[in-house]
Amino acid sequence: MGNAASQQRQKTNPLFFAIETGFFAGLIWGGLHWIFYALRFTKVIPGFLGEPVFRHKFLISAAGQLTGYLLFIGFSVLCSILYVLVFRKIKGPWAGMIYGIVWWSVLILACSWSLLMQPPFRLPWNSLISEFCLFLLWGLFIGYTAATEYTDERKRDSSKGMA
Fold first, then answer.
1. CA distances from 38 to 13, 58, 122 (A)
2. Cβ atoms within 10 Å, residue 5
3. Which of 30, 46, 51, 138 would be 68's cystine partner, CB 3.0–4.6 Å?
4. Residues 71, 74: Cα–Cα separation, whole Å
């Protein structure tokens, strides 16, 4: 008979896990969005989430772009918390990809009149496709990270073998 410590499986705190996942999702994919903007793959400014609060002239400056990057990190943390609390038990990458597409639809298509200077049908195709791919991968990162943490069969099997 093994000791109690080896029989008890350490559980991941969903809130701390979601905050960490969201932080890195925002850091990585927000940084990639900034690079896309700098290389002119997209005309959507990195600070588009701050458009209702900050002036557009500020958001296109270096300080405004950094502010937008930080806003995207915060947005990613909130979205990750939502995903982990609601969808963390779903296996595989598809749920995360759909989650990213839904957020792209909400932000770029539905809310574009308040967040962007121009409606989505006036954005160039390369901007729409770049943003779509970015949000698809962002959602995949959040979703697959949560799925791996909460549905990994190898972790459960190895913890049973220790008992």
1. 37, 16, 20
2. 8
3. 46
4. 5
